Fold:
Amino acid sequence: MSKSKQQTYSTIVSANPYKGDYYIGTFDAISEITSPSFRKEQYAVSFLNTKGFISTLIGISKNIPDDDVYDALENKVYEELALDMAVEYHIKYVEAIQRSTEGDRFFHVFVVDPLTLDQDYAQVINAIKYLDQIVPVPLLIKSLYVKELIDSSDVHCFIYFQENDAFFCIYNEQEFIYAKSLKFSLKQMHERFCELLGEQIDLLTFETMIANEGLNTSNSNYQKNLIKLFGEIFLHISDVMTYAKRAYDIKKFDEIFIGTGAGSVTGLDEYAQTYLGIKTTPFDFNYGFNTNGIKVDQIHQLMHLYGRLEAEERYDCNFTIFHRPPPFAKRDSGKLILVTAAALATALLYPGVYWGLSYVEEFHHAVLTKEYEQVHIEKMTREATVNLKLANKNAAQALLDEQKTAYKQKQDTLIQVHEKKVNYPMKSKIMADFTRSFNQYRVQLKSISYGEDVNDTKTFTFGLTSSNTQDITALLKHLTDIKRDKYDFNLELISYNEEEKSYLSELKAVIK
Structure:
């Protein structure tokens, strides 16, 4: 607990709204509390799981003044995420200093539906009346670096399986980078395990089994199906890590911290390290809290650690709408009472009017609330359908592009084979054909050569000899007449060899 909080608050209470459990902390001790209640001297902390918010990275110009940053981010968030303009979403942000460029600033923006806060925290507020902080769960990890429970500045991944959710997040140089909800919460693990097993066991038995025996359970059938289950889980995690590497320009992950709300799972870190090829450590830190030997969920301990940080040591990202009541005179209700007391005499003249207006407004509010809930459900359903269709479309397009590429490669190969078969000159056949013509005109063949130049021009060169020039010219005329559609002929010179008493010439036949 920070010095300022020690002066004001004697205890910290942490609330898990999804599981409905509470832990109270006094200085260095933490214990579960089954019947929490409102206390002025306690500081109340809770968290949003990764299903409860949307996070995205938004860039804006550095020329935008700090006072206008929120408005600029809000406009871009509504535009880029296609949010319903009729809903006033809760939006908070954390500057991503590492991503800044010469002209732009970047921010991790967190978006929460107002209905989420009203519904998820109703039970908590009924018990303790207010919450000083509601923090997105991946931001709680910042306290591990502030308190030097992790003292390196490497690229770290944190994977934690809770009963109702599972999150994956990345920190680099001790700052938040990315977070995503994973498919497999403990409940989803349990359901998938029962499906693989072919029989039903209850959730508590499943959690106790993995917490006490881990992946090396003595039941061989259980162990076989646990290995299958975690194979599916880490295939999903591997896909998420691949996306994050590409999207956030991460060269490599240095270490993974992995754990579950059910407790430390024996063999899970070794399995993860073998599957992912990255150093893996249990998500199980010594926070310095006395728990009397009782296992306490890491998220509760993180909330207590985070609640003890100074304001400047943690991220300014608080989604609470359940604020501690201000002094009476500063409360809206207090001001209303004072104003009402001053105007009571006048108000008494019109009791019927005031009552009627109040009733109409309450009725109107109830109607609008019911209508909003129905429209909200329909909106979320349609958004999910659209996202699924887009994902299917992208997958189909990727498959089509892959098939087109393969088809083009095969087509090019066949064209080349066809060219070779149809257009490639059969040299032996050509030479036999020319030889018959040479013999017909009593011209002897002394030499022959074949060549192709850079323009793919194919040329046969024949060294000819004859006892008279008339035979050679008659041969040339004959070849030109019958083969002009296949060859271009060139015979530049006929020379006389005095020793051999014969005429020599060089005939070139260029294949068209």
